[in-house]
Amino acid sequence: PLPSPKELVSGNIKTVTEYREEEDGRKVKIIRTFRIETRKASKAVARRKNWKKFGNSEFDAPGPNVATTTVSDDVFMTFITSKEDLNCQEEEDPMNKLKGQKIVSCRICKGDHWTTRCPYKDTLGPMQKELAEQLGLSTGEKEKLPGEPEPLPTPQLKTGKYVPPSLRDGACRRGESMQPNRRGE
């Protein structure tokens, strides 16, 4: 009969001695030496380790048993792209071409911000209009010819209430878009 396996723990080194009989009939002594490491686990993992075992592992020692527990599966990863491909892709990226250019430009000061956020809109805006009038350039407003009558200003009601279409500007063209014979005209 073979002697039973022995475990000897001294400090952080554990020595396991086993005895086995080979196929040809000779007896073999196997000595395994382990270094014991203590690793900190999260509180949830520590609580799960203290759970009572059940089923086939009910009377097993603490820790996983290789006969009943699989710790993990081997996962083999294949990378589709290489680092060289990623480097080439960065060179051809169209956003990199636009980094040196101005995407947004202010109409007042020609800066790289929106016109509504221009810090000079109160000072430069009126100056540009004055310069345009002095030079005789159009400022975007329609210039009137000498023979044309001045258009009547339309009264704007800003009451914040609903105004029906019959009372809105252009009410004399009542129902124009609803006429069935409009296509025939």
TrEMBL record:
Pfam families: eIF3g (PF12353). Residues 170-185 have a biased composition (Basic and acidic residues). Residues 129-185 are annotated as: Disordered. It comes from the Eukaryota. Signal peptide: none annotated. Residues 11-124 form the Eukaryotic translation initiation factor 3 subunit G N-terminal domain. This is EIF3G factor. It comes from Crypturellus soui.
